[in-house]
Amino acid sequence: MIYSLTEEQEMIQEVARRIAKEKIIPKRKELDENEIFPREILKEMAEADLFGIFIPETYGGLGFGTFETCLALEQIAWGCAGVATTYAASSLGAYPILLFGNQEQKQTYLPFIARGEKITAFGLTEANAGSDASAIQTTAINDGDYYVLNGAKQWITNAGEADIYTIIALTDKKKGVRGASAFILEKGDEGFFFGKKEKKMGIRASVTGSLIFEDCRIPKERLLGKEGMGFIIALRTLDYARPGVGILGVGLAQAALDESVKFAKQRKQFGQPIISFQAISHMLADMATEIEAARALTYAVCKYIDTNPKDFSKYAAMAKLFGSDIAMKATLNAVQILGGHGYMRDY
Which of 28, 128, 138, 221 has the highest CB neighbour number within 10 Å of its CB? Predict the structure, then answer.
């Protein structure tokens, strides 16, 4: 379909596609099988200004929005879901600073993020606080000019590799979710440690691990917004991040479709390419249609977000839901089309 992209948007898309083709695809098998963090590829992406797409020009970014970021993310996901997850998670960790940071905090951190010199992570999930984010137990106690954090975060993308962390912790347990606050932490802060690197079934080029706080003292200047705003900050951050999950799914699904079409044209059975069989062509047609629908929905949601509406939670959730569901369906169909080859790691 034609989406009437501007010249700048087409350039962002083309640059990301080139990096996916030239830098990511040749390395993705090695990165995934050996669970290697893609630092060299991230440097290539940083040199192409992909980390600064949504950062205002005031702080060294390109000054674009959610839509342009998703254009890049889709192409990176087409190359490798693990690299794309790492890239997307850095945006997730940056959004609380961009949306709720004061001028000093933005000047301190955003230029480094925009240049890709420092990547970020977002710390909300805990052992007993997954979809129920209100159940977090990590605390941040006011102690003069500092806050002292104690607790742990689980399944955090970029854990141990990121330089900057935005963390949600309770400053007043009695108030429940109204007692949660958001903080900026830096790798190397006293009392801030990293747990084990998780062994995942997939997206292994992306690091997932735990964050541990043992009397971690951080200056009061690292509080984002005001005390008690943590849950609001977390929810708004996740709203901005959800379309990214959706478009990551679209990029992954498109890669599955491309591989399926390529294989179906080459694979011959009963004297003809299997793409000529109606059962196969119907699967490919459904995949292509659903992927384009997911792309159109996510693009529309991103453009809507960039108009700065008061509330877009429902639409952001729709984009995440549909894009990720289509990714699951497309990859399952791809395995079926490739047959035995689809179950081999070479493919």
Answer: 138
Return the residue matching tokens 């890669």: 255
* In contact, 106 and 97? CB cutoff 8 Å: yes
Residue 133, pLDDT score:
81
Q: Is residue 2 part of a domain?
A: no
Predicted structure pTM score: 0.95
pLDDT score of 2 more than 90: no
Q: How many CA atoms are closer than 13 Å to the CA of 73, on its beta-carbon side?
A: 34
Reported as a single tens digit per residue, the pLDDT across 181-202 is 999 999 999 999 999 999 999 9
Q: Are 211 and 135 members of one domain?
A: yes
Residues 317 and 256 in one domain: yes
**CATH number of the structural domain spanning residue 331:** 1.20.140.10
DSSP 162-229: -SEEEEEEES-GGGGGGGEEEEEEETT-TTEEEEEEP--SS-TTS-EEEEEEEEEEEEGGGEESSTT-
